[in-house]
Write a structure and sequence with these properties.
The protein is globular and about 45 Å long. Strands 1, 2, 3, 4, 5, 6 and 7 form a 7-stranded antiparallel beta sheet that branches. It contains 2 helices and 7 strands, in the order H-H-E-E-E-E-E-E-E. The protein has about 140 residues and is mainly beta. The chain starts with 8 loop residues before the first helix and ends in a 13-residue tail after the last strand. This is Cupin domain-containing protein.
């Protein structure tokens, strides 16, 4: 016999956000199977933020670039390095929280013990197919 009981609001929403621990960053930093690059990416449906845990081995660098649209918060999880900008270099150390304002030019270089950092910023809108301005 089918269930005829009324459905509550949570049951009507197939996926609803819930508070939970996503990952232990210390375990990701200790994982030696991934030598460089993204070790974790926030991929929750319906999110308003993007976040990535990046690891750079000693001396590796993220080349100079400019982020025109988004402010980024960078949190050093382990290691250290340098964030370079036209205004000068800033030393990065374990536990630092760094603001990278939109429209700034910067590069990141890992120190002698490597560098693992978390970046958090507003989610970019998805790509859309359409006409270019002026067409």
């Amino acid at each position: 016999m089918p269930d005829e009981s009324p459905k509550g609001p949570a049951e009507l929403q197939p996926e609803h956000p819930t508070v939970r621990v996503l990952v232990d960053v210390h375990e990701l930093v200790e994982d030696s199977l991934v030598p460089s690059g993204a070790r974790w990416t926030l991929a929750e449906p319906g999110r308003q933020l993007d976040a990535n845990l990046i690891h750079l081995p000693a001396g590796q660098r993220v080349d100079t670039h400019t982020e025109p649209d988004l402010d980024v918060v960078l949190i050093v999880i382990a290691g250290g390095g340098i964030v370079g900008s036209p205004d000068g270099d800033q030393v990065l150390a374990d536990g630092n929280i760094v603001w990278l304002p939109r429209s700034t030019t910067r590069n990141i270089t890992a120190g002698k013990n490597g560098l693992s950092y978390l970046t958090v910023h507003r989610r970019r809108p998805g790509l859309q197919i359409g006409k270019r301005p002026g067409q």
